[in-house]
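Late entry, evening session. Most of the bench is empty. Finally got around to the prediction I had been postponing all week. Sequence below, unchanged from the version circulated by S.P.
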Amino acid sequence: MHSHPITTALRVLAVASVVAATALWAPGAGAMVGGTDQLSAAFAAPLAYIEIDEGKDVGSCTGTLISPTVVMTAAHCVYNEDEKTGKLIGIARPRDISVRVGSLDVSNPALGVAAGVVAVLPQPYYRWDGTRHFHDIALLALDRSMTQTPAKLAEQTPGTGKSLLISGYGVTSTYDESPPSLLRAGLIDAAAPSSCHLVSESFDPSWLFCGAAAGDPSIPGGTACFGDSGGPAFAYENTVDNLVVEGVISYGSRGVCEHSRTYLVLVSSERGFIDRALATPASDWSALRDDPPTAAIRAVHRHLGQTGNLILRVNDDRSKHSRVDISFFDHAGVRVSHAFRGIPTDRYVAFSLGPRSTPFNGRVCIQAADGTSKLSNLVCATDVVR
């Protein structure tokens, strides 16, 4: 229980901002809808603006300083995407990532402390299904030690109705195309898990929670938007003296930020991954990596009464074999068959499909799992019988 009303403490934090804190979310570039930018330098101290410059595109996210040399952010921020399909294809190179810690306005290069990145470590169980991100957390090792006080990390799960303050460098509206500038913060309440599940079918309360509209109208409420990914929601744990990062902003329930709920990774559920990384030199982080497998599939075209081949491939950095879930769907999206197969990884494999006596127009989808049950991307292709 809190010894004082948390809303009072958060009001002091949001307006006077005298306590060191965390950072907020951003799916690529942008800030928070609502909230306030009337924040102090002390509040901004552990917040990190993250820029990823890969030549063709420049993206930005938010992060939190959690040790003098480590920033925590969202895993999807550090992955590259295929320009045509949007699929995750690899992790950004450390040299392409730059960080500025402790800035109230990232458009002013004189504010905050700049640092480079020497190592990138996404959560090994991170996955993305095209809409939602799973275990969406990553760590960045900096090339210099920061003087700001790192934020503390939660050890408990926030209960329903708990007040949390989110903050980030993202856009202030869905269609705002202005470059990142002011740090903003806004209040949300932790929502009941049942209401989170109604919005996101894949909601898993063991590692994820979602936000609801703030119950205290005296503090500016906010909703995370593009550019806030990787930033935290933070609150007081047990006492008003123990300010901690409760969550890392991952994704919104809708494409329009103004009408979206914010989904956040539970920091307490990721402490094993985080603590192990913090105890390991950044030069050895590669030994902690075990990326999920990736799956690919080719379209199937058969003539009526003839057989065909389903050709697929699973790539994995460690496993020699993978278990693949294969599902066939009709044109209306109804699954008509379902099977599991074991295949060798890192090469194309063909399965013979029997002849069909009637025309068929649908799709076939596969998802693989490695030896530690980490799931690959879900990938689909057309399956046509003419």
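Two things to note before I forget:
Helices lie at 6-15, 41-44, 193-199, 271-278.
The mean pLDDT is 83.
Will write this up properly tomorrow.
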